[in-house]
Write a structure and sequence with these properties.
Elements lengths: L2 H13 L6 H12 L6 H10 L6 H13 L3 E4 L7 E4 L7 E5 L5 E4 L2 H13 L10 E4 L6
Parallel strand pairs: 3-5
Antiparallel strand pairs: 1-2, 3-4
Helix pairs in contact: 2-4, 3-4
């Protein structure tokens, strides 16, 4: 999280006619601090715990803007809620999700990636977003 991130987000919002507010800056900061996957409600909870007054609606409206601005991405559409995580350079990975405890296991598999690329290539399709979610039960929950 740098001053550059803040000004990049501020410019992004201004260019598109969105208001830049201190709340949005706090949401950006918190989202970039969070490790791993998170849901909108978790972010609301963490902000409030830090004494930052921010409405749920603001968080729900701001997260998609952070996605569009390229700070975070949507992962795991899941059964319940959308999860987000940082955009971490080149790291592309997929997820195993436990239906009982909600644990998320990340994996990266070259062969899987090649298959996805081949499927798209053969159909002359340009992929923009690939989400692989495997639902089941982790070792501890079986
Ligand atoms: Zn589990
Ligand atoms: Zn992940």
């Amino acid at each position: 999280m740098t001053a550059k991130d803040i000004s990049r987000f501020r410019d992004y919002l201004k260019e598109r006619g969105f208001k830049w507010t201190p709340q949005r800056e706090k949401i950006l900061k918190e989202a970039l601090i969070l490790e791993g996957h998170f849901e909108a409600d978790e972010l609301v909870y963490r902000l409030r715990r830090k004494g930052i007054r921010v409405s749920k609606a603001t968080v729900y409206r701001t997260l998609p803007l952070l996605v569009k601005a390229g700070f975070i991405k949507e992962v795991i559409h899941g059964e319940k809620h959308l999860h987000y995580e940082h955009v971490r350079g080149d790291s592309r990975h997929d997820h195993l999700i436990c239906l009982r405890c909600g644990k998320i296991i990340e994996f990266e598999d070259e062969a899987m990636r090649e298959i996805q690329e081949r499927i798209c290539r053969e159909r002359n399709f340009r992929p923009e977003k690939v989400l692989v979610e495997i639902y089941g039960y982790c070792e501890g929950c079986r």
